[in-house]
Design brief:
Largest interface: A-B, 64 and 64 residues
EC number (chains A, B): 1.1.1.3
Pathway (chains A, B): Amino-acid biosynthesis; L-methionine biosynthesis via de novo pathway; L-homoserine from L-aspartate: step 3/3; Amino-acid biosynthesis; L-threonine biosynthesis; L-threonine from L-aspartate: step 3/5
Number of helices of chain A: 14
CATH superfamily of the largest domain in chain A: NAD(P)-binding Rossmann-like Domain
Distance between the termini of chain A: 53 Å
Number of domains of chain A: 3
Radius of gyration of chain A: 24 Å
Protein name (chains A, B): Homoserine dehydrogenase
Number of strands of chain A: 17
Keywords (chains A, B): Amino-acid biosynthesis, Methionine biosynthesis, NADP, Oxidoreductase, Threonine biosynthesis
Oligomer: homodimer
Shape of chain A: elongated
Structural class of chain A: alpha/beta
CATH topology of the largest domain in chain A: Rossmann fold
Largest sheet of chain A: 11 strands, mixed
GO molecular function, one term (chains A, B): NADP binding
CATH class of the largest domain in chain A: Alpha Beta
CATH architecture of the largest domain in chain A: 3-Layer(aba) Sandwich
Strand content of chain A: 15-25%
Chain lengths: 436, 436
């Protein structure tokens, strides 16, 4: 049976919803020529139908009632772009129960409720697609699930939040403090009015939870990912990093240890030779290390109306092709059939190992440095280099140390001990280093 | 009807053929878990069955007769990895006529005979897949055809030949002459014994012909692509480029002018801020500018046994999924159905415009520079900067000029005139500059 037309209903007409509606309307001819069947925007539902979106919808397309869309028997694909995890979850599950394929860009939804949504879609033999949820227009989900199918993925490292990358790039290039960089990011529209999810790393963690599940064939697990944001990064640390040949980026890192995986989000120093070191401004990128491919990297706009909409429409096109050719369950939603999706634990953060950058203010007394290195040595941590950076102020000198590889719990224990010394008036600053 | 097993026959057991055989055998379990059906390597055919490939094939798999593979009714997918365009073409067409899907990594074959092969596959409702033919493991074909489906692609710029990139990187980092860098590339196995296709740019042109067809929805056209290799690049030009803030890369460039396209391969100076400027060694990368996505980039190993094999197996997996779900003609081979594939002409190279780097030796006489700038000025070419680089030798001084944007035919005309001056003993060196 040949399908004559694919009907789309969009829920939520915010930035991305508007972009998807635009693409579906303005690129209708191009899309039909490439997909082989018309993709028809039947409805866009949003509670606010009065604010001008800069599109003139045909009569009856722009409506306020999501229920009309979800319950319309002609709708083939529902595009959930409401955001948040409450209404979005209810609508997504309802749409699947009504036999609609669902496309979303909602990382928070998938990171929090992906397992139940995937299960529902699978039982109903429906597609649930979310390329736009990670890395905007970068085809990272398609790459992991399809292009890297013959690879054991060993690790992934991503700059997955454009707001943070914009802020860090600005501090790096202009030496301005964090607050000023954030303010400009907000003025330019990169950062939300409430930037908490972005700058504290939670948005990156949502995305990492999705990638980690796909890459290693495991259930989605957000809760066990370590998350640390960029709000305490100072121009001084960025400057010091540069002198050591590093850039500071907010990285989402995961590593495959077979029985367990590492998954963590934190500001990270990476060598200038690392391809991610040159990813600047609001751009996103992710390196994926596969056992057959070696390192590959994807780079692109991680957010924004049209880049994100482009990824949403690529999912719509894939599903339209499935509908057209009558293929059901062509691509397992998490990359492997359910019976092969394992519950692989995320390793406790304290068990992970990296090198460390430690910056502290130390009283300018004899013996302080030897005391500090003794504390580190007691935990088996060896120091690669120690530098006095900058001038003495108020009787203290700034000291920067780079350690060899050490375990997080050893560093935490050492730092607690160091912080308790009288000679150390302030809590030391710690930034993890990922060497190649 | 559920397919119980997908049978694969590989033709050609060279480097990539061996890699594909390895992946299919060693990753059989992983692949079955991801694809949902066993992918069985039934045959590997090669005229030479005696040289050890480092794999122990089960009895009866490694044979010398390709006909046995092509004519076996149980074979679902033929993997053509013979190379060259003669036998490979015959076998590919025969396989399609016998109802087999075909996967290849053979860029020369597709660039030269892609149109007829695609037509044959289309008529037989079979898949013809060639992800591995461009950029090794980078999923560039999948990205153009699937991920960027909602985009008008405006331009693509690629480092598509690892041998050339390795050589240019070596000259850049060590200042060694071209011949020495080539020799090392050969010793390390990056360059072929006969490196002509690589270093003279033809391999990149094959790949550009494929990408250009896919991106702009046009028939494959190799003949009209301008091709210039890297054999005349000197350490001096690379050093000069660096002083102006440029890297020299062998770039495959195509631009979409709607009624015509630009497609050219030549050594190119790109600003250090361009993401391709940092792609070093034997790595490949391609930037794609879409009207919705903005710039995206893919990066990865462009050659080598396992990276290329990984891409071949990704095509096998896609086709296996199509067979399994009974989907025919799910994805048009060139991205659009035949009726939408246009015969878009490639613009004559002389009509293209860029900025130019011109290096020449000029007699150290008064008035020479003013004569040269007069010749350029007569063609409407304005000079951005002129520098005397290095010392006077034998009465001549080396002069480097950077022009503003000019048309190729104007430059060629000017240079012919300049070369005919008595004051210019040697043919000037010209390298094109791509500004952002």
């Amino acid at each position: 049976m040949k399908t004559k037309k694919i009907n789309i209903g969009i829920l939520g007409c915010g930035v991305v919803g508007t972009g998807v509606a635009k693409l579906l309307m303005e690129k209708a001819e191009l899309l039909e020529s490439r997909i082989g069947v018309p993709v028809n925007l039947k409805y866009v539902a949003d509670l606010d139908t009065t604010t001008d979106r800069g599109i003139s919808f045909p009569e009856g397309v722009f409506i306020s009632d999501a229920g009309t869309v979800i319950n319309d028997p002609d709708i083939n694909i529902i595009v959930e772009l409401i955001g948040g995890t409450k209404v979005a979850k209810d609508f997504t599950l309802k749409a699947l129960e009504n036999g609609k394929h669902v496309v979303t860009a909602n990382k928070a939804l998938i990171a929090s409720f992906g397992n139940i949504i995937v299960q529902t879609a699978r039982e109903k033999e429906l597609d649930f697609a979310f390329e736009a949820s990670v890395g905007g227009c970068m085809p990272v989900i398609k790459s992991i699930r399809e292009s890297l199918v013959a690879n054991r993925i060993d690790s992934m490292t991503g700059i997955l939040n454009g707001t943070c990358n914009y802020i860090l790039t600005k501090i790096t290039s202009e030496g301005c403090p964090f607050d000023e960089a954030l303010k400009e990011a907000q003025e330019k529209g990169y950062a939300e009015a409430d930037p908490f999810l972005d700058i504290e790393g939670h948005d990156s963690a949502h995305k990492l939870a999705i990638l980690t599940s796909l890459a290693y064939g495991m259930e989605i697990n957000l809760d066990d990912i370590y998350v640390e944001g960029i709000s305490s990064i100072t121009p001084m640390d960025i400057q010091n990093a540069r002198e050591f040949g590093y850039s500071i980026k907010l990285l989402a890192i995961s590593k495959n240890h077979s029985d367990s995986v590492e998954a963590r989000v934190h500001p990270t120093m990476i060598p200038e030779s690392h391809p991610l070191a040159h990813v600047n401004g609001s751009m996103n990128a992710v390196t994926i290390d596969g056992d057959a491919t070696g390192r590959t990297m994807l780079y692109g706009a991680g957010a924004g109306m049209m880049p994100t909409a482009s990824a949403v429409v690529s999912d719509i096109a894939d599903i339209a092709r499935n509908i057209m050719t009558g293929s059901k369950k062509r691509m397992p939603i998490l990359g492997s059939p359910q019976k092969n999706i394992k519950k692989i634990p995320i390793m406790p953060f304290t068990e992970t190992s990296t090198c460390y950058y430690i910056r502290l203010e130390a009283s300018d007394h004899p013996g302080v440095l030897s005391k500090i290195s003794g504390i580190l040595g007691d935990q088996g941590i060896s120091i690669k280099s120690v530098h006095q950076k900058g001038r003495r102020t108020n009787g203290t000198v700034p000291v920067v140390m780079i350690t060899h590889k050490a375990m997080e719990k050893e560093i935490q224990k050492s730092l607690a001990e160091i912080a308790s010394l009288d000679a150390i008036p302030e809590k030391p600053v710690v930034i993890r280093i990922e060497e190649e």
